[in-house]
UniProtKB/TrEMBL annotation:
The lineage of its organism: Bacteria, Pseudomonadati, Pseudomonadota, Betaproteobacteria, Burkholderiales. PROSITE patterns: ABC_TM1. It comes from Pigmentiphaga aceris. It is found in: Cell inner membrane; Cell membrane. InterPro entries: AA_ABC_transptr_permease_3TM, ArtM/GltK/GlnP/TcyL/YhdX-like, MetI-like, MetI-like_sf. The keyword Nuclease does not apply. It is a multi-pass membrane protein. NCBIfam families: HEQRo_perm_3TM. This is Amino acid ABC transporter permease. GO terms for molecular function: transmembrane transporter activity. Residues 161-355 form the ABC transmembrane type-1 domain.
Length: 368
């Protein structure tokens, strides 16, 4: 009688590899897993070795932070951050009166606070819409003035970061209801409404934003009656709203297509009208699905507001050009645009991280 063979140890009984070993193996596979990856890794490493020490030397070690004038900055040999310290109010607030710059600062803080509050799902209540309306009114009063003892400031003197934030937030905020209506119109069973919605969306999406800005700045005044004039800033804001609405409509349409047919049939079976069905059943689910792409769209609109510089509006980049025009501080364009780039990066990165976190949260909720 043969003795029974000893069974081999099961694979699952082996201890798992340490997490750190798995991490390094994955990193090695991504960096040197193929000949192309190895070549690219070596090339990028060589570029970093060549560039990083020079950048650190220029930006920090040889930089001047407190130089009294441009000559002292140039003598230091590195970056002239003293230029930013000297011109930061012009870059951030444009031509707004110097003594009144606390007003655009508070207006910008209100808009940022509203955006942060909107990013918190537990605050998605009707009160938030009223908070947005109140915030927009207070921001407009602070910027224009003329009431409550505030001196009047024409919007031709607005500029810098507050104006960029206002163009982006007001643009998306006003474009959102229009985009939702266009999305519903594109799925409408009424041929005329569907045709008009499709024509609008495809026409606007077929041209770049810069074309709409030129049309609003140059062509629109030619079609207005004699004596009638619309402010240039308002025309630019209108172009941004029309542009963003077309893209929001397509994003929302994607959310509507993701709603199961049973949701429409269930809403109809309990006797809801079309608008009740959309408001109470369909749109809440559809908008929840498309929140991440809507946030990404906001990032795109925030960056696209820099295009208003082509029609002479003093946004953040135009006010930076004004700061560089000072003859006493010429030659520090790199420092100025690095500063502006950091501002854009901080806002866009924060919104992007929020979008990724929200997308992961919604995915985990759907998986339950």
């Amino acid at each position: 009688m043969h003795a029974p063979h000893a069974s081999p140890p099961l694979e699952s009984s082996r201890p798992p590899p340490p997490a750190s070993a798995s991490y390094w193996r994955t990193l090695w596979r991504h960096l040197f897993g193929t000949p192309m990856n190895a070549v690219l890794t070596i090339l990028v490493g060589w570029l970093l070795v060549m560039a990083v020490p020079a950048i650190v030397e220029w930006a920090f070690l040889s930089a001047s932070f407190t130089a009294p004038d441009a000559a002292a900055c140039r003598a230091a040999g590195g970056a002239c951050w003293a230029f930013i310290a000297e011109k930061h109010r012009l870059i951030l607030f444009g031509l707004y009166p110097y003594d009144e710059q606390w007003r655009p600062l508070i207006a910008a803080a209100i808009l940022i606070a509203l955006v942060v509050a909107t990013c918190r799902p537990q605050w998605w209540q009707p009160k938030l819409a009223w908070a947005w309306i109140a915030g927009m009114v207070v921001s407009a009063v602070l910027m224009w003035g003329g009431v409550l003892g505030l001196s009047f400031v024409e919007n031709s003197r607005w500029g810098g970061l507050p104006l960029t934030l206002m163009l982006a937030t007001f643009g998306v905020g006003l474009a959102f209801p229009l985009g939702v209506l266009l999305a519903l119109g594109r799925r409408s069973r009424l041929p005329a409404i569907k045709a008009m919605s499709v024509a609008y969306i495809e026409l606007i999406r077929g041209v770049p934003l810069i074309s709409l800005l030129f049309m609003s700045s140059v062509m629109l005044p030619l079609f207005l009656p004699t004596g009638m004039n619309i402010d240039k800033l308002l025309r630019a804001q209108l172009a941004i709203v029309l542009f963003a609405a077309a893209y929001i409509a397509e994003v929302v349409r994607g959310g509507l297509q993701a709603i199961p047919k049973g949701q429409f049939e269930g809403a109809a079976s309990i006797g809801l009208s079309y608008w009740q069905e959309m408001r109470l059943v369909v749109l809440p689910q559809a908008l929840r699905i498309v929140i991440p792409p809507l946030v990404s769209l906001f990032i795109s609109v925030f960056k696209d507001t820099s295009l208003v510089v082509v029609i002479g509006i003093f946004d953040l980049t135009q006010s930076t050009k004004a700061a560089l025009a000072d003859a006493a501080w010429r030659g520090f364009a790199v420092e100025a645009y690095v500063f502006v780039s950091l501002i854009y990066f901080v806002f866009c990165y924060a919104i992007s991280r929020y979008s990724r976190g929200l997308e992961a949260r919604l995915a985990s909720e759907r998986a339950r």
